[in-house]
Amino acid sequence: MTRNVLIAGAGPGVSGSLARLYAAEGGSVGLLGTEEDVLARLRAEVEAAGALAGSTVVDLTDDTATRSAVTRMAEHVGHLDVVHFNPSAYREKDPLSLTPDELLADVHLGVGALLSVLQAARPFMGPGGRVTVTGSMAADSPWAGAASLGVQKAGLQNLVRSIDVTLKDDGIRAVSVTVRGLLKKEGPFAPDNVARALRAAIDQDEADWSSEIPYTG
C-alpha cells in the first residue's frame, strides 16, 4: 500500500530514516524542516528510493507559516495518510537555571507545534489516517540537566492520547512511540531501527490500539 506521508521536523536522524522507509513503499513524502541543505539531501534520498518528494523550510513555532506549508503540501498530493511529528528542543539547563520563557518556548516547539500541523492536516485525512510522534523515555525518566525535554515529551505523550480519543470515531488513530534508550549510530537504537518501530506502529490492530508504544530495542 502506497501512502502520502508528511513529516514535520524532518532531519538527518530518525525522521530521515522514516522518510526513506516510507519512500521505499512508493507514494509521496512531504518534508517540513528548518535547514534547506538538510532538506535538499533528504529529498534527493527520498526520490532515489522511488517516491515523490516535496520539502519546505518552516519554523514550526510560526503557527501561520506552518499551517500554510502543511496545506500547500496536502493540496499538492490530494490527501494525507500519515502525519509524523518529530521535533523537540534540547536545552541543557536544570530547573534552577531554566527560565519560564525558555520552558514555554521549548514546549511550543516540542508539543504545541503538533496542534498547528494536525489542525492543518486534518481536512486532508480520512478513515485509516494515522498520526505518529517520536516519543522518549524522558517523558517519565527525565534528566534534570535538560529539564525542558522531559516536560516536552511528557506533554507530547499526553496530547497524543487526547488526539487519538478525538479522532478515533473518524477512523484516524494517533500513537506515540516511546524510545527507551539513547539514539546511537549503530545497534538497536540506531535511527533506522527506531524508524522501523514508528512505521510498524501504524499497522496496529484497531481493536487493540494503543496510543503509546514503548520501543526497547
Automatic annotation (TrEMBL):
Protein name per Swiss-Prot or TrEMBL: SDR family oxidoreductase
Keyword annotations from UniProtKB, A to Z: Oxidoreductase
Transmembrane spans: none
Homology family: Belongs to the short-chain dehydrogenases/reductases (SDR) family.
Organism: Nocardioides albidus
UniProt-listed PANTHER family: 5-KETO-D-GLUCONATE 5-REDUCTASE, ALCOHOL DEHYDROGENASE, PUTATIVE (AFU_ORTHOLOGUE AFUA_3G03445)-RELATED
Oxidoreductase recorded as keyword: yes
A GO MF label: oxidoreductase activity
A matching Pfam family: adh_short
